[in-house]
Amino acid sequence: MKNVVEIEKMDHMGNGIGFIDGKTIFVSKSIPGDTVIFDIVKETNSFVKAKPKKFVSRNHEALSAFCPYYYQCGGCHLQNMIYEDTLNYKVDRVKNILNRAGIDEDIEVISNDNPKNYRNKIELKIKDSLIGFYEEGTHDIIEIDNCRITKECINNFLPDLKNMNIRNGEVTIRCNYNDELLVSIKTDDNINLNKEDYPDKKVAGIILNDKCIYGDNKFIDIINNTFFEVTYDAFFQVNPFINSKLFEIIKDNVKGKNVLDLYCGVGTLSIVASQNAKKVYGIEIIPNAVVNALKNAKMNKCDNVDFILGKVEDKINLIKDEIDTVIIDPPRKGLDQKTINKILEIKPSNIIYISCETQKLSEDLKSLNTNYDVKKIYILDMFSYTYHCESVCVLERR
Ligand SMILES: C[S@@+](CC[C@H](N)C(=O)[O-])C[C@H]1O[C@@H](n2cnc3c(N)ncnc32)[C@H](O)[C@@H]1O
Question: Could you identify the atom of ligand 1 that is nearest to the CA of residue 266?
């Protein structure tokens, strides 16, 4: 088979698609209008998965990626597009997936104010002392000294991380509004800590294998003048600007007296919703996140919010009040059937479903569709220059 193809369209995972002799060729990091010589990664009777070796000619709007690791790294997918085109791609992607579930509402797009250096969290792999990300489609490490979509205060800590002499493991570094860092390390190695260096670099805490070995295991973040304590193992959205936009959407769409916030993390959306509600209940599985959520309600003077620790599918039965709005913000795997049935039984007049996995969102909306109409869809560019996006669907009971 020839190893050169003209890219005609794109798939849902940011790959270019071309055809050779009836076979579909998926080439990563290429866009329609590119003609590309490719290396085969996987071949079956019907398709080839490939990566670009050389571009023979490029779409005249294709850009050179702003990250030197782009063509090796598995993190970003769309750096060869101008930013506005990445948004158009995401709108088409979400529309296509939701159309399959019979949903065809207009989409409002919320773009990122600064689509580079936006992430407040980096998740690094360490293998044989190389620190970086997995190479696209493999478990080999691409060593990096700067991630162009991550905040600079995190990148500035990477030399200190190198000095710790970790040979194998995983490290997550987070930062807050004030560029303070929380560093969580998982390794079996003995690590080297230069604690005297850290105060200048605003290291709030270092956690080794779930044990705090420096500073604290949590810090405070601020979004839209609201304070949130966040422990190292609790979920917090990776893009503060887009998170602030999500808060505004929640505030605009919460209706009625009582609100149920499923998968509530450290209570962010519960606290936002509490401004327009009589009572809010949040349910969350991570113990530290629930401790944070209770503290966050106090810190922000919300006395109409309660948090329940446990699995949504188990604890949702504890809610006896009539619920007007259910906020759903599940992990990537979406809702299980038990939870969907219970939501239908609760009969809220309004559902706000937030999703980072459009395929699962579409399946869940199909199940909720029996009693609910989608009234509004937002796409928030939470994960700029990747194919991922955050969608918010507002549903109303028929
Ligand atoms: C996408 S996050 C949303 C968090 C929160 N709404 C926010 O905006 O920060 C999903 C949350 O669901 C929690 N979670 C995952 N599975 C769960 C389950 N079965 N029951 C309750 N919470 C769960 C995770 O720990 C995480 O905090």
Answer: 9
pLDDT for position 2: 86
Domain end position, chosen among 25, 47, 62: 62
Q: Within this chain, do residues 21 and 168 fall inside the same structural domain, yes or no?
A: no
In total, how many domains does the chain have? Answer: 3
Asked whether residue 195 falls in the same domain as residue 251, the answer is no
Tell me, what amino acid is at 12?
H
User: Would 19 be classed as within a structural domain?
Assistant: yes
Q: Is the pLDDT of residue 361 over 90?
A: yes
pLDDT tens digits, one per residue of 134-159: 998 889 999 999 999 999 999 999 99
Long-range contacts of residues 293-301, Cβ cutoff 8 Å, at least 24 apart: 293/264, 293/265, 293/266, 293/267, 294/267, 295/229, 296/227, 296/228, 296/229, 296/266, 296/267, 296/268, 296/271, 297/267, 297/270, 297/271, 299/227, 299/229, 300/226, 300/227, 300/271
Alpha-carbon span 302 to 296, nearest angstrom: 8
> What is the mean predicted confidence (pLDDT) over 53-59?
93
The mean pLDDT of the chain is 96
Rounded to the nearest angstrom, the distance between the alpha carbon of 234 and the centre of ligand 1 is: 9
Active site residue 147: no
Q: pLDDT digit string (tens) for 288-327? A: 999 999 999 999 999 999 999 999 999 999 999 999 999 9
What is the domain extent for residue 369? Answer: 86-114+239-397
Q: Do 53 and 98 share a structural domain?
A: no
CB 289 less than 6 A from any atom of ligand 1: yes
